[in-house]
Design brief:
The protein is mostly helical. It has one domain. It is built from 13 helices and two strands.
Length: about 260
């Protein structure tokens, strides 16, 4: 499998990484705008184009990641599809515009995770983690307070408890704060465009309310991150066997150990 071997042994491209870091916010907004109710109302159904864009962006993103991050990104696609099925189709917390889970969504989750990693590795973040943590924490508390008081977003209180648990387990890493902001950004754009909508009373419980979107919805995402990391650790334990199976020699394998 020469192509697969070449892909696995390739080094991350700093040029692609730079392009993705700059383009991500605008391209994400463009993609969700294409899948919006406003565009659909004009008689234009562009979701297939958004699906193609997400897959192309995901493939390009893989070349900006190292081996371990590529592995996690690839795992994230099927893992998040299962999560989407549970939260959207089974629990009915939210619904997509056309009723079905779009193809771009699981790829979008993997993209979000990977972009969160890349943003957290920027020198302006790495060098000021101690100063950024209290700023991030206060911002999240303020957002949660506003959501509960002004939008009666009690679902976010449950999500916030899960997020705090993750932060404690992970030593309050800035990665999870950054991923939270990225997910919140995408949720705000996606719901504003009508690409998906959160149901106001989850589980049909009148005492439980959700804003559209819940401010702390990103907690589901960081919980998925824990699951993917566990799977990746298991697969990396079998890494040497995997690399041999695709035709790598001992010198190539040493680069990943």
């Amino acid at each position: 499998m020469p192509l697969l071997t070449a892909f696995l042994t390739s080094q991350p491209s700093p040029i692609i990484k730079r392009i993705l870091l700059i383009s991500f916010p605008l391209l994400m907004m463009l993609a969700l705008a294409m899948d919006s109710t406003a565009i659909a109302a004009q008689g234009i159904e562009a979701q297939a184009w958004v699906n193609a864009m997400a897959i192309a962006y995901f493939v390009l993103l893989l070349f900006a990641l190292d081996f371990n991050r590529r592995l996690m990104a690839l795992i994230f696609v099927p893992f998040s599809l299962g999560g989407e099925y549970v939260f959207s189709d089974v629990l009915r917390l939210y619904s997509y515009r056309l009723g079905e889970i779009p193809i771009y969504v699981p790829f979008g989750h993997a993209i979000l995770f990977s972009m969160g990693v890349l943003y957290s590795e920027l020198s302006c973040v790495r060098n000021y983690q101690a100063q950024l943590r209290p700023v991030f924490s206060c911002t999240y508390v303020a957002l949660l307070f506003a959501a509960v008081v002004f939008f009666h977003d009690t679902l976010s209180l449950i999500f916030a408890g899960a997020f705090i648990w993750v932060l404690q387990r992970k030593g309050y890493q800035t990665l999870y704060f950054i991923m939270g902001f990225l997910v919140l950004y995408v949720e705000l754009v996606g719901t504003a465009c009508g690409s998906w909508v959160w149901h106001p009373h989850p589980f049909n419980w009148p005492w439980l309310e959700a804003a559209n979107p819940p401010v702390a919805a990103f907690a589901c995402y960081v919980l998925a991150d824990l699951g993917v990391m566990k799977i990746a650790r298991h697969l990396k334990a079998q890494k040497s066997r995997l690399l041999v199976s695709v035709g790598m020699n001992d010198n190539m394998i040493k680069r990943f150990n």
